[in-house]
Amino acid sequence: MTDETTPDVSARGPGAAAPVTLLVCVTCGAEGDGKPPRGEALLAAARAADAAGGSGPIEIAPVRCLANCKRALSAALGRADGWTYVFGDLDGASAGDLLEGARLLAAAEDGLMPWRGRPERLKRGLVARIPPLFPSKDRP
Amino acid sequence: MTDETTPDVSARGPGAAAPVTLLVCVTCGAEGDGKPPRGEALLAAARAADAAGGSGPIEIAPVRCLANCKRALSAALGRADGWTYVFGDLDGASAGDLLEGARLLAAAEDGLMPWRGRPERLKRGLVARIPPLFPSKDRP
Predict the structure, then answer these.
(1) What's the gap in Å between the CA of B109 and the closest CA on chain A?
(2) Degrees (nearest 5) of the Cα angle A78, B123, A35?
(3) What's the pLDDT band for A16 if we cut at 50, 70, 90?
(4) CATH no. for A20-130
(5) ipTM, interface predicted TM-score of the complex
(6) Which pTM does this prediction carry?
């Protein structure tokens, strides 16, 4: 049973968007034929889309690896005072959806990425979400 | 392709074990028959095993939910200066393995749970791992 839509951290006060980190797994999609892994293309696409503007405060970085290999390509979105989300079943065209997810997470007063308005790919591709580990007061 | 065995954060200096948080999903395993979700039993077992001693500095807390419903029961292990691990396909007998994973993660100088010596259930049940989001210097 999913309870994914239920906010369960203390609400942040209203304020500016919080910085969000997008980690793109660059070991995903290695095909062993000398071509760069497909995760690298997703990372490049995310950076290009971010450079084109509009995605808010976001840091984009590669990671080796998210260990979500069964559902590659993979990426994670998180913010220090909020939840972290791992997504799978992505492809090279997912950059825009990831940036939209980053925007939603950055703007969320409660630190949770809202379900409503979330790109469909970030609903179906949700692998796991993790609350802020510290401080523990943010958990029930 | 997994690169899960490759350390890729800056090494911590030698020192005492770092505090680890174990989050057990207590929405997992709800059977709708008035019984508590099976995740609650796993949480209770983890607390009992920790109280029996030997697991090192660990905080154990419930979470609603990790959104890993397809592979319930679920739990996450993380430390603030290290990686966070999400596990699925757990059952009520997994508490000891989770505490052993916590011990390994707490003792890891590089903030990564070592593959060698990791309980089999935490190898097969690995759903995803996420590096420390901040500071970004910890990433390649």
Answers:
(1) 18
(2) 65
(3) low
(4) 3.40.30.10
(5) 0.82
(6) 0.84
